Amino acid sequence: MAEGLLRALDVSIGRRVEGLLAGDFRSNLLGTGSELAMMRPYVPGDDVRRIDWNATARTGEPHVRVDLAERVLVTWLVLDASVSMQFGTADRRKADVAEGVAVAIGHLATRRGNRLGVVAFGGEEPVAIPPRQGRVGLVGLLAALRSEPRADGAGSSTLAAALARTGALARQRSLVVVVSDFRGPREWREPLLQLAGHHDVIAVEIRDQREQELTNVGLLYLVDPETGRQLRVDTRSRRLRERFAVAAAAERGQLARSLTGVGVRHVVLTTSGDWLRPFVTFLRRSRA
């Protein structure tokens, strides 16, 4: 997709986001402040990360910290540009959905002078853009990431490294939106846990249906785009297809538990149908 078409996508998504998210999108979803407003006793439903342990020790009763809202809210977009994101068998590729989510987040995160930072991983070179007002450079970045795939399947950095880098760059409490298919080793759990301890984190998982089930199309040679490993598969076997579907569902279920287990909000978008409406619905529910 040429940069001109990406800019047209930017305009189209911006209009739809404005229509679907009627009203001001300013909420505690986008983070809290750093200046203390008050201490109050903990009540069920409070975020346990806001517990002030010094006040709790002094009073013998759990207390939470209530901050004044930041006037400038910062959002970090952690974007997967690895080769596995080029896969897609439905209406679009996973990379296309990721680009759309990036554009939508860009529109939401830069309203009223708020700032957006970007960390991209898995492409030719790791990318980190410090927070700035407006969506300056976002579309150009997406075009550059798309035009530089690694032919050997090897990326310049991993999700774990990108999360660690985001944690080092994010100096104030922020919203962190991680957009990835979360395929491959899960050494990212520890840096994600550390990140979620200081920031509000949303994991946007991109899936393609063919990753979850096999179709009876005869003999296939499957290739792992990240490693280049090949596997010969006879999809005519019903038992094989059933085992594959069960294993794929179990693997994604384990992923969901890993994400929610570290305090991360999780939404799944697919390469088929309308991805924007369920994403905005998820944001509305998170705001509520």
What topology emerges from the helices and strands here?
Elements: H1 3-20, E1 35-41, H2 53-59, E2 63-68, E3 74-80, H3 94-109, E4 115-121, E5 127-133, H4 138-147, H5 159-169, E6 175-180, H6 189-196, E7 200-207, E8 219-223, E9 230-234, H7 238-261, E10 265-270, H8 276-287
Parallel strand pairs: 3-4, 3-6, 6-7, 7-10
Antiparallel strand pairs: 1-2, 4-5, 8-9
Overall radius of gyration: 20 Å
Total strands: 10
Distance between the termini: 36 Å
Q: Tell me the β content.
A: 15-25%
Task: Please list the strands of the largest sheet in the order they lie side by side.
Answer: 5-4-3-6-7-10
Can you write the helix and strand succession as a string? HEHEEHEEHHEHEEEHEH
Question: Roughly what percent helix?
Answer: 25-40%
Mean pLDDT: 84
Broad structural category: alpha/beta
How would a textbook summarize the main sheet?
6 strands, mixed
Instruction: Write down the overall geometry.
Output: globular
**Helical segment tally?**
8
Unreliable stretches: 23-31
Overview of this structure, please?
By secondary structure, this protein is of the alpha/beta class. It is 37% helix and 22% strand. The chain contains eight helices and ten strands. It has helices at 3-20, 53-59, 94-109, 138-147, 159-169, 189-196, 238-261, 276-287, and strands at residues 35-41, 63-68, 74-80, 115-121, 127-133, 175-180, 200-207, 219-223, 230-234, 265-270. The strands form three sheets. Strands 5-4-3-6-7-10 form a six-stranded mixed sheet, with helices on both faces. β3 (74-80), α3 and β4 form a beta-alpha-beta unit. α1 packs across α3 (94-109), α1 (3-20) packs across α4 and α3 runs antiparallel to α4 (138-147). The longest helix has 24 residues, at 238-261. The radius of gyration is 20 Å and the shape is globular. The two termini are 36 Å apart. The model is unreliable at 23-31 (pLDDT under 50).
